[in-house]
Every structure is written in structure tokens, then in C-alpha cells.
Amino acid sequence: MHATRTKRSLAVAATCVMLGGGAAVATSATTAAAAAPAGVSSVSHDRASHDKECRWYPAHWEHKYVPGQWQKVWHHGYWQNQWHSGWWDSHHDRHHGYWHKVWHKASWHTVWQPSHWENQWQPAGWYCR
To answer: For residue 75, which of 100, 104, 107 has the smallest C-alpha distance?
Structure first.
């Protein structure tokens, strides 16, 4: 009877170790997957291009520095109220000032855009180096 108890307890212990080991392996695999960088999903080696290391990056926004540059900008036409001040004419008569609407035509203007930081969308793709 004592031998049966020992065999049974060893079988239970072995089963617990195997189940516990399987759970530990599953937990470590989940932990390893969570510890991987979020932006990189896989790595491959491209033999056709002399063993370059290629990585797949998902689409994302990237904060990039844009240097100063000249840029053509379209300005839409607009109405503007302008004040014409009063004046004296050659007959010594006073003409009062008045408001006058002036239309500024739409046109292209070249303006200087100073350097700045902006968010640019980077599409998903393979990047090899």
C-alpha cells in the first residue's frame, strides 16, 4: 500500500511539474512577445541584395525636422475695406474721407517658410540596410 501511494504521489508531482512547466513556457513566450519593440514585427535577411537586414515597420506618424525653404503658396482673392482720408481740392473745398471696398486678386506668392518640426505619415513597408 505504501508503494502505491508513493507511485501515485510521484505521478501527481510529475504531472504538476509538466503542467507548471508548460504554463511557464507559455508565460515566457507571452512575455517575450510583449517585450519586443512595438514598431518592429519581423526581421528577415534578403539574400538577393547581399545579405541586407530587412525589417517590417507598420505605418506610423513620425516627428521630423523640416529645414527652411522657399515655397509657392496660393492666396485666394479677398475683399478689403480701405479708408480714403479727406482732402482739400484746388478750389479750397473740403472733401470728406470715405470707405472703399477693394478686391485683391487671387495669385501665387513665393514665401519663405522658416525651419520647423512637423508630423509626417510614414507608410508601412520593408526597410533594408
So the answer is: 107
Q: What are the helix (H) ranges across 36-112? A: none
Query: Is there a contact between 44 and 129 (Cβ–Cβ < 8 Å)?
Result: no
Query: pLDDT digit string (tens) for 30-75?
Result: 454 444 455 555 555 555 556 678 889 899 999 999 999 999 999 8
Q: 116 and 69 in contact (C-beta within 8 Å)?
A: no
**Strand intervals (E) in the chain:** 42-46, 52-57, 60-66, 69-75, 78-84, 87-88, 94-95, 98-104, 107-113, 116-122, 125-128
Contacts of 80 by beta carbon, 8 Å cutoff, 6+ apart: 101, 102, 103, 104
Q: What is the pTM of this model?
A: 0.34
CA-to-CA distance for 55 and 114, rounded, in angstroms? 34
How far is residue 23's CA from residue 37's CA, in Å, rounded to a whole number?
24
